[in-house]
UniProtKB/TrEMBL annotation:
InterPro entries: Integrase_recombinase_N, Integrase_SAM-like_N. Keywords: DNA-binding. This is Integrase SAM-like N-terminal domain-containing protein. Transmembrane segments: none annotated. Gene3D superfamilies: 1.10.150.130. One of its GO terms (molecular function) is DNA binding.
Amino acid sequence: MVEPPSQAATLPVHELWCKQVAIDQATDTYLDPAAGRITLAEWVSIWEQGHIAGPAKRAAYDSHLRNHILPRFGRIPLTQINRHAVKVFVKRLKTDVIIAEQAADLLDAECVE
């Protein structure tokens, strides 16, 4: 586990996390996101193992990751993904959605006539 437990976590959970980090550091397997040694794809793999979601939400996450997020940012270290890059990415996605909706509207209009 790379991410520390939340403030609401119980003391034993926090202690276990600290011990796991110490073990990972001692065996040189600790991946510190802040150190830039981990890509977004690697982080997603870690995140998925501990993230709880129902089947529908999991399918939505998988779809967004597979079709949009990982193709753009998957190979990039976390420290190199900045706010500007994400804003440009989101703007491009919104533009693509608008274009797709306009095309669908056009096709619907063509089919009705």
